[in-house]
Amino acid sequence: MDKNSQQRLTMIDSLRGLALVGIFLVNITFFTTSLQTISFGVELWNGWLDQGLMLLRGILIDGKFILIFSFLFGFGMVLMQESSRRKGSSFHRLYIRRLLALLAFGLLHGLLIWYGDILTHYAILGFALLLFQRCKPPTLLIWSAALLLIVPVLLTGASLLSPGNGSQAFEPISQADAHRIGIYFQERDAAIYGEGTFLQITVQRINGYIASLFNMLVFYPQILGMFLLGAYFCKQRILHDPNGNRKIIARLIWLGAFIGFPLQVMMSLAKGLPSWVEAVSLFVGAPLVALAYIGAFALLYQKSGWSNKLRILSHPGKMAFTNYLLQSVICGLIFYGYGFGWFGKVPPAMQMLLVIVIFTLQTVFSIVWLRRFPIGPLEYVWRLFTYWGSPVKRSGQDVSHPRQQRGTL
């Protein structure tokens, strides 16, 4: 493998590491705040620092890095498909076993550790992704655009067709009522998660997991759309040669900066927006910003000064599966009653500081681990199910070509 190929593949691992820390910055709030409280938009912390950080997170982070992760899932599917073709093995059979193992991990994660699991959804939508495995790049791009636009188009159409052009179609409850409801659920969940027994926490977690499964259904078109977009980028080799595709990547950055970013600012600052405007901001603006982040990261990675700094993210990125689940275990010990019981007691600024500390420790752990082993511990178990045998040769070389397949979550 030449130097440019190695840098390219390390860049994908680094991008996955960046997505992992971005997701963690969002997920930690769900470990210490009731899902219903978040849904009703209740602000529990009034300090200027906490409110300012949450505003910045809403504009820059919320909903963007999970889309990058989804993009990389589709990208990784094509890499695995190409690897299977070179080895003469059955990609379809391998990928189905891979998805079934991912589903099992997701169920265990969601039911026993944290209700906000994303692995279950990735596994389910991974089977839908298989339907597109033979599609040509233009077909992937068309389907991706259609899936990303379907929710805002439907909501906009419903608003325009409703009486009064939709001004009363989705009348929200009053802020006072939303605040009371949000506070009630926060106090209820704090009593269970923060002070309850493991059994009580487990029952509540299962209820939250079921609710989360249904809540995520509306995002299924968006996630699958990003899967397909990642597959398109991989088949077109856009990130394989960022310098050669600089014009395409530059357009993505401009779209994110001048369309996606203003939509995110509007959604975060404006109150009482029509539902269709929020849908456009969420389902159009967020993917554009995510693509801009991907493009900017890829171009920065070509500069030696930036590449040396960003490469450190490749270590947790190669062990993304292990680190993602480990984050949930650590947060459970911090916020739930079977650990420190800090549910509802940690303000946003301290949450973000915890993320920085934990992710730094995970990065050190990943560096040390990968010096001794070619893949992470849970990555090993995952591939054990995928390949029905040892996924690592005695020489330390991954049988599935680890430099191409590491962390294809």
From TrEMBL:
Pfam families: DUF418. The keyword Transmembrane helix applies. It comes from the Bacteria. Residues 234-388 form the DUF418 domain. Keywords: Membrane, Transmembrane, Transmembrane helix. The chain crosses the membrane at residues 20-42, 54-75, 95-112, 118-133, 140-161, 209-232, 252-270, 282-301, 321-343, 349-370. The keyword Membrane applies. This is DUF418 domain-containing protein. It comes from Paenibacillus ihbetae.
